[in-house]
Amino acid sequence: MLRIEAVDAGYGRAQVLRRFSLEVAAGEVLCLLGRNGAGKTTLMRAIMGHLPLMGGAIRLEGVELSALPPHEVPRQGVGYVPQGRRLFGDLTVAQNLAIGLMARGQGEETREWVLGLFPRLRERLGQRARTLSGGEQQMLATARALCLRPRLLLMDEPTEGLQPSMIEAIRQVVARMRDEGVGILLVEQRIDAVLAIADRVAFIENGRGGEVVPAEQLRRDHALVERYLGV
Amino acid sequence: MRGGGARAWTLHLAVLVLLLAVQFVLPAYHHGNLARIMVLASYAVGYNILFGYTGLLSLGHALFFAAGMYGLGLAIKLGGWAAGPAIVAGLGAGLLLSLAVGALALRTSGVAFMIVTLMFAQAGYLAILYFGAFTRGDEGFVIPREARMIMWLDLADAATRYFVALALFALCLLFCLWLMRQPLGRALIAIRENEERTEMLGYDTFRLKLVAVAISGTMSAAAGAAYALLFGYVGASFAAVQYSILPLLWVLVGGAGTVLGPFLGTLFMFYLIDIASGLTTAYMMIAGVVLVMITLFARSGLLGEARRRLWGWLP
C-alpha cells in the first residue's frame, strides 16, 4: 500500500532522514519506534508533502505522493493525526468535523459514522475544541482525519498525555480501522501502547531505518527495544 | 461560523432596519455622516474578510479602494461613460488588481505579505500622481452632478445617497454573513486558525487565499466606486497609505472576525475623531489614547469582546 523508498529529507541543509525505506500494507498497524529526534515526525511530514524530499520516493498504491502538491496528498486518501492534535481550537467540535468532511466532499453518512466511533464527541458538538479535555481533543483530531475516509492513516503519538481509558478508546478505533482494511502508520514512544495494538514494529535511529519485526517477536525479545530506545 | 443562524440573521436584519429608519429623524449633518460611514463600513467589511476571517494582514487595501474609485471616475471623465457601466469598470479594476496582487503577494506570508501589499499600494498611489494628466494627481477631480445619475436616481440627492449607501452596506454585510456559513467561508476560517493543518486536510490554501483576496479587493473597489459616485470626488488621498491603515483600525476596534464589528468600528472611529476635533486641534492624541484603552481592555475589539464575554453566538 504505502512504499517509502530510500527517502532523504530534512530541514534546509540539515538532513534528518537518510535513505529511509518502509512499507505499510492495507489492514495493518505498523508502529514506528524511535527516540526523540530520530526522525519520526519528519517522516510523517514528508509523507504529507510538507517537507520536500532530497531523494527517494513515497508511493501510495502506485501513486507517487512525493510528486504531488501537499493539498493533493489527503485527496489520495491519506489521513493525518498530528502530534499535539492541532485542532481549530476556536471552532466547535461540529465545525471541526465539518471542515474535515468538506475537504473530500463527505456528507451526513460519514459524519454519523465518525460520531458512532466517538460517541463522546456527539455530546460535545457545540463545544469549542480548545475547551475539550486532552483525550477528547485526541478523539476529535482522529475523528477529523477519519472524515476523509482515508485508506492510510498516519498517527503521530496519539496516546501522548492521555489517561488509560482514553488510550483504550483510541486503541479500539485503531483496531476497527485496521479491520476495515485501512493501513495505519503509528508513531509512538510508549512501548506498552505499541505492543497493545501493532502488527509489526519498525525502528528508526538517527534518520535511518532499523529492523522491522512482528510485534509478537518484540514481546519476547526485549533486548531489541533496549537497543533502539535504551529502556 | 459561530452561533445560531436564525438569531444572527435577525440581529443583522434588525440593524439594517434601524439604519433605514433613523434617516427620517437624523439632522442633516449626521444624515450625511451616516451615509459616508456606511460606504466606509462596506470597505471595512471587505477588509475583514481577508484580515478577520482569513488571517491575512494587508497594508495595501487602499489600492483596491482607489481602483474602484478611479476605475469608475476615469470611465466617466475620460470615456464619457454613464454611471452604471462605470460602476462595472470600477469593480472590474478592483477584481483584476486584487487577482494580480494576490497571485504575487500570496507567495509570501506574515510580515513579508504586509510589506509586499504595502509596496503595491504605494506603487498605485505613485502611479496616480505620475499620470496626473489623466488623474489630476494630488488635486483629484470632481464627478459632475449630471454624471451621478443611474436611470432616474439622482445620487447627489441626500436621501437617495443615503438609500444607495445603505443598499451597498446591506449587500456587503449580508454577503459576509452568508459567506461565512458556506464551505468557502469555513475553509477561510480554518486557514486563519491553522493554515498547515488546513492544507493537510486536503484544501488548496493558496487558491482559497487568492479567492479571499479577490472577494475582499472587489468589495473594497465597490466601496471606492460608491464613494466617488455618491460624494462626487475622486482623489489621490484615497490611495495613500492612510486609507490602507484605516480599515485595519476600524476592524480592530469593532472586532476582527465579527460580521458587524467593521461597521461598529467605523462608526466609533468616525465620531471619535469628529467629536475630538471639535474639542481640540490635538484630536489625534485623544483618538490615540482611546485606541490604546481599547487595545488594553478589549483586545478582541468592541464586538469581539462582547462575543467573548456575553454573547457567544454572535457571528
From TrEMBL, chain A:
It comes from the Bacteria. Belongs to the ABC transporter superfamily. Signal peptide: none annotated. GO terms for biological process: L-amino acid transport. CDD domains: ABC_TM1139_LivF_branched. InterPro entries: AAA+_ATPase (IPR003593), ABC_transporter-like_ATP-bd (IPR003439), BCAA_Transport_ATP-bd_LivF (IPR052156), P-loop_NTPase (IPR027417). It comes from Meinhardsimonia xiamenensis. The keyword Cytoplasm does not apply. This is Branched-chain amino acid transport system ATP-binding protein.
UniProtKB/TrEMBL annotation, chain B:
Keywords: Cell membrane, Membrane, Transmembrane, Transmembrane helix. It holds the Pfam family BPD_transp_2. It is a multi-pass membrane protein. One of its GO terms (molecular function) is branched-chain amino acid transmembrane transporter activity. InterPro entries: ABC_transp_permease, LivM-like. The chain crosses the membrane at residues 51-74, 86-106, 112-134, 155-180, 210-236, 248-273, 279-298. It is found in: Cell membrane. Its main location: membrane. It comes from the Bacteria. GO terms for cellular component: plasma membrane. This is Branched-chain amino acid transport system permease protein.
